[in-house]
Amino acid sequence: MTKYGSFPGARPRRLRTTPAVRRMVAEHRLDPADLILPAFVREGITEPVPINAMPGVVQHTRDTLRKAAVDAVEAGVAGIMLFGVPLDEKKDAAGTAGTDPDGILQQAIRDVRSETGDDLVVMSDLCLDEYTDHGHCGVLDAGGRVDNDATLERYAEMAQVQADAGVHVVGPSGMMDGQVGVVRDALDQTGHEDVSILAYTAKYSSAFYGPFREAVGSSLKGDRKTYQQDPANLRESLRELALDLEEGADMVMVKPALPYLDVLAKIAAEAPVPVAAYQISGEYAMIEAAAEKGWIDRDKAILETLTGIKRAGADMILTYWATEVARGL
Ligand code: PBG
């Protein structure tokens, strides 16, 4: 007995005594095979261009992208998610460069496939914002509103050109209603039954996309609140999940990751398909910036966030640190 009561009968600290014990009893473990590297490739550059708000991440040339893909494979990373950045003068209201068979994203898909074959799962962002001069994820109607159904027709074309270029997985990320169904039909009707769909199921209208807008040179003014989800809503993401599954999603995703771990946990509990989470540009920037100031331990913070995302239920994580983290595991 202590002066104030009995000594504890249960001592959880016993299982924390040494690194070996802690490792043995860890409930979740990161694996390189869980990680997917998002990568940007920009048309018309001969040297990679650093992205200010994402120290350590660049807009790749076609050559340096090939190299990054090979590095990812060597580190054991599972996949790569490609984003194309066209020449400024190629941006227009309809995002034509996004459906050009020789557009930058399609070239990048071919480049990476020819370099890595089937060793790396090659995925592509299926969205118009990288290609439109107004920066929205779809085409606009006469009133300047994003026109859902006209946009679906553009997405169907994008699906076909990306699949023709050899992509394994398309990632429709525009949050248009019916996008997964239309993309599935377009793929099936053009002989691409084996191309999978990673549905951006619960994609929130987030301030944390800020650095991404620089990464793809987006000229968006305003916001995406009429198509992306409101951060206040959880239940709505279950409705999006049901629709995406009905429309043929092979995998589903929650995005951003860290501020939405409850959404991730809920979707992971409900979804009968693999679940991904996207640790986005602003999540990356926060840690890099705080670490640069010497305010947090960068490497520990990275692993802690990724472990938290895994613990919340992600089978796969898209992270700009994928190759670095995979190397260290
Ligand atoms: C849409 C898209 C975005 C991101 C991935 N796909 C931007 C947006 O919806 O505004 C953001 C990724 C990131 O911030 O890291 N093409």
UniProtKB/TrEMBL annotation:
Name assigned to this protein: Delta-aminolevulinic acid dehydratase
Organism name: Streptomyces chattanoogensis
Keyword terms of this UniProt record: Heme biosynthesis, Lyase, Magnesium, Metal-binding, Porphyrin biosynthesis
Active site positions, chain numbering: 203, 255
Claim: NAD is one of the keywords in the record: no
Sequence positions that bind 5-aminolevulinate 1: 213, 224
Family from the record: Belongs to the ALAD family.
One BP term from GO: protoporphyrinogen IX biosynthetic process
Subunit-level organization: Homooctamer.
Enzyme Commission number(s) from the entry: 4.2.1.24
